[in-house]
Amino acid sequence: MGPEQVFRENLQLIDRIAARVCRNARLFDADAEDFASAFRVHLMERDYAALRRYEGRCSLVTYLTIVAQRLLGQDRMRTWGRWNDSAAAQKLGEVGVRAEQLIRRDGRSIDEALPILRDLDPSLTRERLEALVAQLPQRNAHIRLVAADEVEEELPARTSSEERVVERETHALSGKASEAIRNTLAALPLQDRTMVRLHFRTSMTIADIARALGVPQRPLYRRLERILDTLRRDLLRAGLDRRNAAELIGSKLVDLDFGFAAMEGTPESSAAAPGERA
């Protein structure tokens, strides 16, 4: 799949990532809309150069999130100027420096900064972080225009703690979705599981499934709707809403395992069309 096709097929995902990055950065209304437009343009610039650099070493969701964060950081640095860590933060070590950047510079809350900082210090508690932040000076960003090559030097590394947190959250979400679907399918009657497998894993039509299973076609439509309603309810109970699911599916690269492979050897699966195996 070429970069232009990736862009066009993931426009909704791109906009959701832009909106999430804006929320985290306390950017709202017209400013958020402007950034979302700028993010799209950035991805299209120089014949989709940013997407051409994607190598598949992380999920597309993670990669686009990092690109959006870098773009926003670039814009802020041009507007606010270069950020220098305070002496107090430097005395507190790496956690103190990063806490100052997240809370004093980026305006994040304690609760938002805590999981990122725990990547540096897993033992960090909310109480310790509050005490640490109390030692940091209140600061205003110093506004100074800088050149683009200066900005590039200040961009976070691809292995930054924020990138690892985003990727870890994405994998956790995909695992939760997979487990919820597997549990729901396991509780279904064998023929229902087979119908789901044939329809979604092998893209068979309802008419083909009816012929393969030797059952009337018309009742299968309502039957499939009931199964899908059950899956939606179980996903909601597992804490996944439509936006979460769309991000996972839209990324096309997150590992989702719904247990279809385990159904291949079931007696009902032998009813599938000749040569059909996913």
Structure notes:
Helices cover 68% and strands 0% of the residues. It folds into three domains: 3-79; 87-134, no CATH class; 167-271, no CATH class. The chain is mainly α.
Brief write-up:
The protein is mainly alpha-helical. It has helices spanning about 5-10, 10-25, 30-50, 60-80, 85-90, 95-105, 110-115, 125-135, 150-155, 160-185, 190-200, 205-215, 220-235, 240-250, 260-265.
Low-confidence stretches: 141-159, 249-254, 266-278
Report the average pLDDT across residues.
Answer: 75
The percentage helix is 55-70%
Output the helix-strand order: HHHHHHHHHHHHHHH
Write the layout of secondary structure elements.
Blueprint: H1 3-9, H2 11-24, H3 29-52, H4 60-80, H5 87-91, H6 93-105, H7 110-117, H8 126-134, H9 148-154, H10 161-186, H11 190-201, H12 206-213, H13 218-237, H14 242-251, H15 260-263
Helix pairs in contact: 1-3, 2-3, 2-4, 3-4, 4-9, 4-10, 10-13
